[in-house]
Amino acid sequence: MNTEQHDSEAISRVREEMIKPEYITGLSTFFKVIGEESRVKIIYALSIQEMCVGDLAEALTLSQSSVSHQLKLLKLNGQVKSRREGKNIYYSLDDHHVVGILKESLNHIIHKMEEGCL
Asked: Which segments constitute the HTH arsR-type domain (predicted)?
């Protein structure tokens, strides 16, 4: 038997102000895409400057195949774009919002670490 009292005003307000299900799905997908360590490194590197696969792999001490795989996922999800120059393909960020999100998240992590929470 459930004897818990419910706050009908709070329930109504949350239901009225809740974001659309498709936005929730989009947010979840976005965080899954950027929420992998190699992809975070790649995004951060590309926030500094555009790079080709080989240079990214060398700078981040990752294999070229790993970098290529991660870039493909980032490109499919609209985070990264590419351009060809001769034999090289250069990658850069296609969505600069992601840099702000990463930097704000980093500030949050640093703050929590300083508090001893992480």
From this structure: 19-113
Q: Where are the domains of the chain?
A: 8-114
Give every CB contact of residue 66 below 8 A, 6+ residues apart in sequence.
38, 57
CB contact at 8 A, 81 and 91: yes
The structural architecture, per CATH, of the domain 8-114 is Orthogonal Bundle (1.10)
Burial (0-12, 13-18, 19+ Cβ within 10 Å), 59: middle
Q: Hey, what are 87's tokens?
A: 């034999």
Which of 87, 84, 75 minimizes the C-alpha distance to 46? 75
Q: Say how many C-beta atoms besides its own lie within 10 A of residue 117's C-beta.
A: 8
Task: For 14-44, write each residue's pLDDT tens digit.
Answer: 999 999 999 999 999 999 999 999 999 999 9
Enter the pTM of the model: 0.85
Any idea how long the chain is? Answer: 118
Across the beta sheet with 88-93, the strand order is 51-52, 88-93, 80-85
